[in-house]
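Quick log. Single chain, no ligands specified.
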Amino acid sequence: VQATWNIAGYQALVNAIRANGFNNIMMCAGDVWAQEVENFKTWVPKDPLPVSQIAISAHPYAIGPYPYTAPGSIYPKVGMDSGSGTAASMQHYVNVLNAGYPLIFGEDSGNGGTSSTATPAEPHIDFMTKFVDQYGISYLTWQWNLTQDYNTRQTDWFLTVYAQDGKTILPIKGVGTQFYNWIVNHK
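-> predicted structure:
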């Protein structure tokens, strides 16, 4: 059976939301798993409100695997841009801010963590928390609420683990503790 349908783009969605009286902030993200920010001006919708309530959202995951031995691998992916995984990739986020848009990192995580051994600061999260503090960017992580079993060895992308009692939830040492310490000590 052949079927056809229309897909609403960002502009149609923004127009429909505003036409129904909602004036809330809307997060809009680019392609490539919300990592495309280098061309945000080509896809960001226009907000019909007198003062735009559009925020650019991105997922700045590290480009390399932990322990980030490749040069620049703590830097995030930025879509299909050749600058992904380099210090130059960070300029794309600064460009969003310089264009007057709020920026929200709506999902991120590092690759380094284990539930059974202590590790130093997770390098990607350490880098990103310093960057968001410098520029006043909102920052969230991936899977804070999907807790891993006690003594889980493979914890990439996840940030919490059950303690030995099977009930207490703790941040995974490494990536989890790095983010947890930043958020609870954040001013």
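The mean pLDDT is 85.
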